[in-house]
């Protein structure tokens, strides 16, 4: 009879070896293999490391003049020494002692216990096995099974299965009933909840009204008890009423020199409205662009070549103004301590000069050495709708015709936008914005 045994590769895995051993013994018993044929058939299934181990074992036994292995029990003991460590039996016993049902079913728990007992080759009385099985059951099953009669381990297992099924049915019924009750409660509580939401605000409003009435009564009673002739108004200085109930309702405006004037609220409201309108009118900003026209005269300046961009990053404020119907260049620079006017502009337009109250020397505007600044001039100029005049020191400057420095900026309270190079200020209750020349326009001015 041909017997096909499973192959064995000799891996260091205890479980795989024990499975192979049990399978081989089942096949031997099924086919009724004789004792002499068991060892040759078993060794024919060796592959890989198992085959090398078997050949080495036979060679070693021949060298030591030991008899060859002829029976299955001898081969099994030799293979157990090779593949099963000495501590494996202790581990199986510990696992068997600690085995608990927990999340396993009764069938799974029983099979696991039998497997441990078979692998550990444990043979014990049935009463001991029953006690071992009972100790690992869950409490809810064990408490019920202990009260029931049983003959052996099989009867005990069947009782445990029935109790387990009963517990599962009860738990499923509880879950279904609980879900139904939740749905009913939800459906029943929807309408009362809405009624509560509607009724509660009305109750709160009623309570608040009652409290307000009580407060009004408390406030009215002390006034009625006192005499009206003793009450004095602090607004009109009359008697018989308080300031909040004054019939005149006049407003007292205090002014300087211990004078005052009274106006009715209607006049104050109209005046306030007119003030708002005037503020709105004043809030309008008047844009002021450079004056267009050819410059009055040429000026010698040093400047960079135009970059072709509109950025004001490297430019000071340049613009053009109108002086006696002539286009003149104007610079606003906060780095200058004085307002300056070019000597050539004064001579060209024959402007009227005046002596400087505090003459001083300059050294940085010209290469000719010290320059005495002892003359001033009032220059009237306009840029668009903006008209102004500035008291300037007459200096032989060549960068521009008029240089407005800190004095002019201080008087006008100017605000300089560093990003756009614009200057904002208020002049005669109007807001103005001075826009600079572009870098291209500054470069195109005659030099």
From TrEMBL:
SUPFAM superfamilies: Retrovirus zinc finger-like domains (SSF57756). It comes from Cajanus cajan. Residues 232-247 form the CCHC-type domain. This is CCHC-type domain-containing protein. SMART domains: ZnF_C2HC (SM00343). The keyword Zinc applies. Residues 193-220 have a biased composition (Basic and acidic residues). Keywords: Metal-binding, Zinc, Zinc-finger. Coiled coil: none annotated.
